[in-house]
Design brief:
The chain is globular and about 40 Å long. It is mainly beta and 202 residues long. The protein is built from 1 helix and 17 strands. The protein has one helix at 4-16; strands at 21-23, 28-31, 34-36, 40-43, 50-53, 71-73, 79-89, 108-111, 117-127, 132-135, 143-145, 148-150, 163-164, 169-174, 177-179, 192-197, 200-201.
């Protein structure tokens, strides 16, 4: 089954009517890609709510707009948005990658866009993405706390990072686990006023 349209409709309706949040039940949902607006919250039940990538999804009919993203900003970037307490299964064994030579975020499971502002990722576990973990370049007030990013892809031929948050300001990356990505490093280069501490990276 495919829960994408039902969840996307709930996000769009709640955002338009001022409710500004959705909460997942403690179950498994199957989705291709979800667009999340700014000033919105997505919550679940930690370790019991899971979003699984719909097999072989991401193709839109155009090589330009097709991507492997599971969660993305509905606009150019995200602001004042939180994601709390759910798992994401990238289902890498049943996924397809797309040409990302002109858009390096295309095969990242979570894409907050460039110059995002005030994003919270808390108790989110991402497992088996085909490519990278989180793309959030040039962030302001980005907080990634108590998350896990594990087991990227099915090959080391293509290089992906668990987290790209370079060029940020007031960045907090703490108490997370980053493991088994082809590019083992977390990219927080040229961060201004950041705290990157207490993480496990292997």
């Amino acid at each position: 089954h495919d829960d994408t349209s039902t969840i996307q409709a709930a996000i769009d309706t709640n955002s338009a009517t001022g409710r500004k949040a959705i909460q997942f039940n403690p179950k498994n949902y199957v989705v291709s890609s979800l667009s999340v607006p700014s000033n919105f919250s997505v919550t679940g039940f930690a370790y019991n709510t899971k979003l699984t990538k719909l097999p072989w999804s991401g193709w839109t009919g155009s090589s330009i707009s097709s991507s492997g993203r599971m969660i993305k900003a509905s606009g150019v970037k995200l602001e004042n948005t939180s994601f709390v307490g759910f798992d994401i299964d990238g289902n890498s064994g049943n996924s397809i990658g797309f040409d990302d030579r002109t858009d390096i975020s295309k095969n990242y499971a979570i894409d907050f866009g460039s110059a995002n502002n005030s994003i919270l990722l808390d108790k989110v576990r991402l497992k088996k993405p085909l490519g990278g973990g989180v793309y959030a370049t040039d962030p302001v007030n980005l907080k990634v706390i108590g998350c896990e990013f594990l087991d990227s892809g099915i090959t080391d031929r293509h290089v992906y990072s668990p987290l790209i948050a370079d060029g940020g300001k007031n960045t907090s990356i703490s108490s997370n686990r980053f493991e088994n990505f082809s590019k083992g490093s977390v990219d927080c280069s040229i961060t201004n006023q950041g705290a990157i501490e207490g993480n496990i990276i292997s």
